[in-house]
Design a protein that fits this description.
alpha+beta; two-stranded antiparallel sheet; globular
């Protein structure tokens, strides 16, 4: 069987890709954001759309770095802090 933890965190249930419901959740999460693709302009609007999807799929914990929300407090985080958080997430045992 193929299982994966949803990106929402350890409190989220495992997704079983063999079930229609969980496969649908996965594919919906992979869909492009509503609206035009990000073109380097309108960062606040793009991040608001991303935050809406994060809330819908319970991904908020992914964007918490040093007790700050990357999507709303991005100017308060350095690129190094974001890169470090991404590396920690990637090497976590349950990812």
């Amino acid at each position: 069987m193929v299982f994966a933890r949803s990106p929402a965190g350890s409190a989220a249930p495992l997704l079983n890709y063999w079930t229609k419901e969980d496969a649908t959740i996965y594919f919906k999460g992979c869909e492009a954001l509503d609206g035009n693709p990000y073109d380097g302009k309108g960062l606040p609007e793009f991040l608001a759309r991303l935050q809406g999807k994060a809330e819908a799929f319970e991904w908020e914990s992914l964007f918490q770095i040093n007790n700050r929300d990357l999507l709303t407090n991005y100017a308060e985080l350095t690129a190094a802090q974001v890169q470090t958080a991404a590396m920690v997430y990637q090497v976590a045992n349950d990812r």
